Automatic annotation (TrEMBL):
Pfam families, per database record: Ebp2 (PF05890)
Family: Belongs to the EBP2 family.
Domain of life of the source: Eukaryota
PANTHER family linked to this entry: RRNA PROCESSING PROTEIN EBNA1-BINDING PROTEIN-RELATED (PTHR13028), RRNA-PROCESSING PROTEIN EBP2-RELATED (PTHR13028:SF0)
UniProt entry tagged with the keyword Coiled coil: yes
Name assigned to this protein: Probable rRNA-processing protein EBP2
Organism: Leptonychotes weddellii
GO cellular component, one term: preribosome, large subunit precursor
GO biological process: ribosomal large subunit biogenesis; rRNA processing
Amino acid sequence: MDTPPLSGSDSDSDDSLVTDRELQDAFSRGLLKPGLNVVLEGPKKAVNDVSGLKQCLAEFKRDLEWVERLDVTLSPVPEVSGPQSTPQNKDQKTVDPEDDFQREMSFYRQAQAAVLAVLPRLHQLRVPTKRPSDYFAEMAKSDQQMQKVRNKGFLWKAKALHSSVIPYHSAGLLGSIKRQELMELMELMALTD
């Protein structure tokens, strides 16, 4: 760029603080062209990290047992053909990449095939695939937090039911409200008190 500096300062921090007046002056002198004026960075330099690539390759080449990797490569389970289904080619290129549903179903069927192939193999290796009946997962929220959430939900529902009852009550149409809704409202009001 052969343009003179817009301000009298040579520091980088002052160059970034160009005022509107300086930009207008530079444009009127013909130093700037109309449009967006930004400094373009040069092309991105390719990094050839040979040691990092070799380290990744060594990770891939690690000879672990299959139980440690659990990798499997299979083609999808064939689609269940209905009375109006189209004949399916075994070629994987038949999945339209623009059709999200078709693509998701392809992933689903491939996962199905993997499960059908891997479960017998895991059972053969005596790897447990089901949780014990007495297994309890750790809760993300404590019982106290869950009680607060329940109370807020009850309160919200009670307020909603109560607000729907008031217009009927004031109009003298209380008999048209279902008895069950009134009982539920009374129970919720008793819980929130």
